[in-house]
Amino acid sequence: MFNVAIIGASGYTGGELLRMLLNHPEVEVTEITSRQYDGTPAHKIHPHIRDSGLVFKNTSPSDLDADVVFTATPHGASMKIVPEILETGAKVVDLSGDYRYRDTEVYEKWYGMEHTDSKNKGAFGLPELYRDEIKKAKLVANPGCFPTGAILSSYPLVKNDLVDRIIIDSKTGVSGAGVNPSATTHYPNIADNINPYKISSHRHMSEIQQELKGFEGVKVSFTPHLVPVIRGIQTTSHNFLNDENLDITPEEIRKLYEKEYGKEFFIKLMDEGEIPHLSSVRGSNFVHIGGFEIDETGRLVMLSAIDNLVKGASGQAIQNMNILLGIDETAGLTHFGLHP
Predict the structure, then answer these.
(1) Reduced to 3 states, what is the DSSP secondary structure of residue 322?
(2) What are 71-105's pLDDT values in tens digits?
(3) What is the DSSP pairing of strand 287-294 with strand 299-306?
(4) Mean of pLDDT values over 43-59
(5) Of 87, 144, 164, 258, which has the highest C-beta tally within 10 A?
(6) What is the pLDDT of residue 217?
(7) Mind listing the domains of the chain with CATH numbers?
(8) How large is the greatest C-alpha to C-alpha distance in the chain, in angstroms?
């Protein structure tokens, strides 16, 4: 058995890590940390986690004894403690945005703070794209929730140089805003409503651009919307075919996706006419991708659905942990979604 610890385990992502890790066949959660809840049993904060015997402790990162440490900490906090953890010999899966960028200047622009750890570089933790890099890494930067669904839905298109413009429209559940309530997530403000926010300036746009715009000549735009559901991200990706590929057919597009993702356990391609639904992936680490329709303007519509707390955060973090430890990548993650 491998020992794992979770720093900042009191939030939604911490609760999801616990829910899945406590059923993992090859790891044991040895420590969960929180300054705010030091000495508090886990079930007092996560009422669904009963009889685990785990208690939150305010343990110094350097005092953790674990093979893998999850840092479920705010942006800016991770870079202050990750170097200390790595010095213990543990590997790290970081769920913040601190190590996702190849260029720290991009991070500083979008997150509005200085990046203080230029020494440690993280592998971008999207296994379907970077599995080989993750295997060799000591630090994995878990992708953001929006980028996970958005990148996977369009990646085969940019890889094959089919599009020159991508417009991404994502609808997210309220849990994506985190455990602390705010005016934005107050029930009367979110119920019976759809709220676009940061319509041209969401920091996840830079992460999506890094992975899709890296292919020359592709312009990428992104707008998120908050919708009155708890979990899930539904993404509609409008991919505009370049002039050289306006005659491509949906059948040819599907074959490209089957070639790219056909062996990926967690990516399921929808049948013709079938739409990805949030309830189909709720609570699971699966990504459902569908659409494959082209209109008369050369706009190829692709759709994806993920659970923002699982494939968009904690489930993908465990998938990355499995790769780091050299065990079955699907271990602890094979459960299907909760439908209805």
Answers:
(1) helix
(2) 999 999 999 999 999 999 999 999 999 999 999 99
(3) antiparallel
(4) 96
(5) 144
(6) 76
(7) 2-121 (3.40.50.720), 146-307 (3.30.360.10)
(8) 63
State how far the alpha carbon of 82 is from the alpha carbons of 87, 109, 118, 192, 281, in Å: 9, 21, 12, 41, 31
pTM above 0.85, yes or no: yes
In order of 97, 145, 201, 215, 315, the CA distances from 204 in angstroms are 9, 9, 8, 18, 19
How many other CB atoms sit within 10 Å of the CB of residue 165?
16
pLDDT-derived band at 113 (thresholds 50, 70, 90) equals very high
Long-range Cβ contact pairs of 31-34 (< 8 A, separation 24 or more)? 31/5, 31/6, 31/57, 31/59, 31/64, 31/65, 31/66, 32/5, 32/6, 32/56, 32/57, 33/5, 33/6, 33/7, 33/8, 33/9, 33/57, 33/58, 33/59, 33/64, 34/8, 34/9, 34/10, 34/58
Active site members: 145
Alpha helices (runs of H) in 103-199, residue ranges in sequence order:
104-111, 127-135, 145-159, 187-190
Side chain identity at residue 17, one-letter code: L
Strands 27-33 and 56-57: parallel
Residue 281 backbone dihedrals phi, psi, to 5 degrees: -110, -5
Q: What is the pLDDT of residues 240-266, one digit of tens each?
A: 999 999 999 999 999 999 999 999 999
Can you say whether the dihedral through the CA atoms of 124, 127, 129, 134 is positive or negative?
Answer: positive
Pairing of strands 287-294, 267-269: parallel
* Predicted pLDDT of residue 213: 78
User: b vs e for 21-58, b when ≥16 Cβ sit within 10 Å of the residue's Cβ?
Assistant: bbebeebebbbbbbeebeeeebbebbeebeebebbbbe
